[in-house]
Design goal:
The complex is a heterodimer of chains A (113) and B (114). Chain A is built from no helices and 11 strands. The model of chain A has no long low-confidence stretch (mean pLDDT 94). In chain A, strands 2, 4, 5, 9, 10 and 11 form a 6-stranded mixed β-sheet that branches. Chain A has 113 residues and is mainly beta. The relative contact order of chain A is 0.34. Chain A is globular. Helix content of chain B is 0%, strand content 50%. Chain B has no helices and 11 strands. In chain B, the strands form 2 sheets. In chain B, strands 2, 4, 5, 6, 9, 10 and 11 form a 7-stranded mixed β-sheet that branches. Chain B is globular and about 40 Å long. Chain B starts with a strand and ends with a strand. The chains are: A mainly beta (113), B mainly beta (114). Chains A and B meet through strand 4, strand 5, strand 9 and strand 10 of A and strand 5, strand 6, strand 9 and strand 10 of B.
Chain lengths: 113, 114
């Protein structure tokens, strides 16, 4: 059974800092890994998708890496802004016949102006 | 191109009642998944539909059921509501077969069971 863990649970940084969010998963037989952003009371916004054959993906100030062998992914946010404040969730797509995303509990990020 | 839309956005039910939540997939997407997100937790997989057939199910009892229609929209039905069913219910759609591609989520339906 896939389990996804995110560390830290909460993070507070001053505006402008670069930061790294961590995600680990127990079963390396994944199809892809996806990072999402969730604002309070809202749905999930897809940030980056890394296929199992890829090592990293970049979008603007965001960079996500994937190391399947060690069961880890990181989300790097450069030059953080107050608008980046949200909960960030990682999810691994796995399963044979039942392709489900297994989510971590998220990292709540606060960027202080 | 419209994204994933869900209705209703909020609803309140009492224990024992039944509820139907609706989801319209993003245009061109034929896979729909439903997730339950309790407060402070990550979403939990309920089930998935691909081309109108249930393609997988998480650890949820049979009183959680669903449908996918020919236009790929979907419904989630929950019977005999319990207090623990209070959660944000999220629908996600994706193009192509279920093990490929990016999932796109709607804003969710917030269910409160009293």
């Amino acid at each position: 059974k896939q389990e996804v863990t995110q560390i830290p649970a909460a993070l507070s940084v001053p505006e402008g800092e670069n930061l790294v969010l961590n995600c680990s998963f127990t079963d390396s037989a994944i199809y892809n890994l996806q990072w999402f952003r969730q604002d309070p009371g809202k749905g999930l916004t897809s940030l980056l998708l890394i296929q199992s054959s890829q090592r990293e993906q970049t979008s603007g100030r965001l960079n996500a890496s994937l190391d399947k062998s060690s069961g880890r992914s990181t989300l790097y946010i450069a030059a953080s802004q107050p608008g980046d404040s949200a909960t960030y969730l990682c999810a691994a797509l796995s399963g044979a016949g039942s392709y489900q995303l297994t989510f971590g509990k998220g990292t709540k990020l606060s960027v202080i102006p | 191109e419209t994204g994933v839309t869900q209705s209703p956005t909020h609803l309140i039910k009492t224990r024992g009642q039944q509820v139907t939540l609706r989801c319209s997939s993003q245009s061109g997407h034929n896979t729909v998944s439903w997730y339950q997100q309790a407060l402070g937790q990550g979403p939990q997989f309920i089930f998935q539909y691909y081309r109108e057939e249930e393609n997988g199910r998480g650890n949820f009892p049979p009183r959680f059921s669903g449908l996918q229609f020919p236009n790929y929209s979907s419904e989630l039905n929950v019977n005999a509501l319990e207090l623990d069913d209070s959660a944000l219910y999220l629908c996600a759609s994706s193009p192509g077969p279920p093990n490929t591609g990016e999932l796109f989520f709607g804003e969710g339906s917030r269910l409160t069971v009293l």
